[in-house]
Amino acid sequence: MEEGGNQKFNKTQLRMNIFHIVWPVFIEVLLGSLFGMIDMMMVGRISEHAAQAVSAVGMTNQPVFLGLSFVQALNVGGTAIIARYYGAKKYKNISLVLKHVMLLAMLGFVLPISVLMILLAPYVLSFLGADVSVIEVGSAYFRVIMLGFIFQSFSFTMTAALRGIGETKIPMRNNLIANSLNVLGNAVLIYGLFGFPVLGVTGAAISTALSNVIAMSLNLRYVLSKKSVLYLDFKEKFEFRLEMMKDLIRIGLPTALEQLALRVGIISFLNIVSGLGTNVYAAHQISLNILNLTYSPAQAFGITASTLMGQSLGAKNEQLARMYTRMCQRIGFVIAIGMSLFIFFGSQTLAEFYSTEPEIIQNTMIALTIVAFVQPFQSHQLITSGALRGAGDTVWPLIAIFVGSIVIRVSLGYVFVNIIGLGLAGAWYAVFIDQFIRWLIILFRFRSGKWKNIRISLD
Predict the structure, then answer these.
(1) What are the structural domain ranges in the chain?
(2) Residue 298 in contact with residue 332, Cβ under 8 Å?
């Protein structure tokens, strides 16, 4: 038994509660990142315009991620509120929260962003620094991906709501099915198997969009089935609650601004890196792709910490909330050290999975060596930020992102790349310093304990 203030906790039971939630999330996030790697590998093996195809996918990802980040901002509020209602055993309000999030997401972000990006695809790629060859390859890909974005957003919102009640196996299963079909669709449509035309990078987009439709359909089928406390009944009259909407906006708005700041920082940073040439930019995208895979455990533990933080605060147990967070931090940090060693010693092998061009391989190895040192700080920061968001404390993650991603990463990236001339290594030095500063800010906030004072309406 371990004491927490005036309470005693069974550490074994707490770990079991954590792993009950975290392992399906980890598999879902890991396989999602792995399938993303496979996507890029398959695109990178296109016989013509391989570097342009990889760059097009990487550049397109940024506005897509920006749109998803706005949706996920509302989802953060939805997860936090649903987790509190679940912890407080006020189940009747849980489905109502999901309806409010869906309404806000579709009307506020998803449909407007999709229409704009489809209409302005070539101009957006040009703004991101793409040359003419990348724009030619990437415009059709971008438009198809933005159609799939509509269904992807619906799916993400339902997944976030299910996580709020601790149900993580269903989203894992549904996303595994959808992503597996995506890989199969890639093989058929990119390379023209079984009599299908060779569509190249556009085929990858079509396959991805169809997999988003499948994932959304599977998640929707579950929340319509009434198999859990979270279910949608569209026959019921929609009851608009102003206080609930205020809570969603109050928690979600800083997260939206956080993600906006992050994307502005990333896009500005990508403009700096893209000036190093197409092959170096492709190496940068490969390194980011590998980083996304290796911090999957941290993402999973961050989501778990968010869920358990919200449920514990809903049950009026602040000591338990703190204990869950610390256990997630410790386990996640140990895993991150292992990932760092894997990246550091396996950089050449990892690079050669993605490309056969010597310049791309060499630059990827340089970046991955630095990624290995980024990993532990990023992991701990992601987990702690997840706990803060679960408490509804979303302002400090915004501060950390603004300072790290915009002030530190962009300014130092410009100095290291354009003034000192350190190339891609200089860009990744800036990433390391950015992540270290974010870690310090988030750790300071969590240790202050002020997150426990965040309140939502539990009427």
Answers:
(1) 2-452
(2) yes
SS (H, E, C) 1-15: CEEECCEEECHHHHH
DSSP three-state, residue 80: helix
Q: Which helix (H) or strand (E) holds 200?
A: helix 200-223
CA dihedral 166→169→173→179, nearest 10 degrees, is 50
Under a CB-based contact definition with an 8 Å cutoff, are residues 150 and 114 in contact? yes
Q: What are phi and psi of 363, to 5 degrees?
A: -70, -35
The predicted-structure confidence for 423-451, as pLDDT tens digits, reads as follows 999 999 999 999 999 999 999 999 999 99
Q: What is the pLDDT of residues 136-173, one digit of tens each?
A: 777 888 889 999 999 999 999 999 999 999 999 999 99
Separation of alpha carbons 6 and 12, rounded Å: 19
Cα gap 351→166, rounded to integer Å: 37
Structure tokens at 394: 């979303």
The CA-based dihedral angle spanning residues 196, 201, 207, 212, taken in that order and rounded to the nearest 10 degrees? -170
Q: Which of these, 96, 204, 93, 112, lies nearest to 153 by C-alpha position? A: 112
In this structure, the dihedral spanned by the alpha carbons of residues 102, 104, 107 and 111, taken in order and rounded to 10 degrees, is -60
Q: Check: CB of residue 251 under 8 Å from CB of residue 394.
A: yes
Q: List the one residue out of 266, 199, 288 whose CA is nearest residue 408.
A: 266
Residue 359 CA, distance from chain mean position: 29
The structure tokens 């069974």 sit at: 10
Q: State the DSSP code for 49.
A: S
Q: How far apart are CA 366 and CA 358, in angstroms?
A: 12
Residue 321's alpha-carbon distances to 190, 316, 318, 450, 455, in angstroms, are 47, 9, 5, 13, 15
2-4 and 7-9: which strand pairing? antiparallel
Report how far apart, in Å, the C-alpha atoms of 350 and of each of 14, 207, 274, 369, 443 are: 36, 25, 22, 11, 32
